[in-house]
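Open question from group meeting: does this chain pack into something compact, or does most of it stay loose? Before anyone orders reagents, we agreed to write out a predicted structure and look at it together. Recording both the input and the output here so the notebook holds the full record.
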Amino acid sequence: MHTQTLTLHIKGMHCRACTLLTESEAQELPYITRARSSLKHHTIEVAGDFTDKTPKEVAAALTERLHTHGYTVSVEKQAHPKNWADFKFAIPIALAFAVGFVLLQKLGLVNLIGGNVSYGTAFVVGIVASLSTCMAVVGGLVLSMSATFAKEGDRVKPQILFHLGRLLSFFVLGGVIGAIGSAFTLNASASLTLSIVIAIVMLILGINLLDVFHWSKRLQPSMPKFLARHAYGASKLNHTFTPFLVGVATFFLPCGFTQSMQIVTLGAGSFLAGAFTMGSFALGTLPVLSLVSFSSFSIQKSSYAGVFFKTAGLIVILFAFYNLMDALVVAGLIQPLFSF
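Structure tokens returned:
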């Protein structure tokens, strides 16, 4: 076997989860033995025996495998349009969302003050997360698992087990994080620091979703790859309880929204508060992930994808600034901007 290495260009990468997904899918091709994706350069380096294939043929094969997730692979570097015109629709939609959020806040249905996120807010953040590219890796898991079990004619039961495992794991493990956080008493400085960290993480997520500042992608925190890689590999198995275990494993995948909510949950104060916070977030992601499960729905392939992502990005940025301002209010550093 004559091993060669090719470096190809990927269009459609948005976050660190994309590197995991593209690497895992590329290694499913029989003649590829190793794959390493770079978010910084938007490339994928693949190694294997390509003696009977040209680089363009390898790129075409990778595109065929990855296009359902919103990626295309080519030999030459692809132009990445920023589509500033999308903001004509994204800005008014995001502002309308913000007005609606403030009204719900005034009614007491949602709350985001000083890092204490209500269950209603966690649910809303889950909806935003499910429409973002940061959920691509979870959608990839669902699609991969669907294909695996569809070969045996079983399409419904695995999906139900997957979503059940996801909801239960977010509830139970969220409770564990809340219990751990309750063991430590946060003073005013620590609470302010935690709120600032949450705001910074959300700000980075929002900027990434705008898809116009590529330098920000490298700032996004991520979980160790080996944990996520094991979770993704499990989706290729077809044992009876594998879908349930894959659903549990999504708690550890490199989704920035999940990680920001896990940070928030540290300040929940108890097992039940942490459990209901993460559980509400998981419920918010359920509708879109269900569409992915049963209809191969992908927002990334929609002609309105740019508007969706820019709207979601603006909303998350508003959340970040709102959370930061209220943390400063609680700390007594600034006067309240809103009275609820």
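Observations to bring back to the group:
The beta strands are 4-11, 32-38, 43-48, 72-74, 112-113, 116-117.
The two ends are 69 Å apart (CA to CA).
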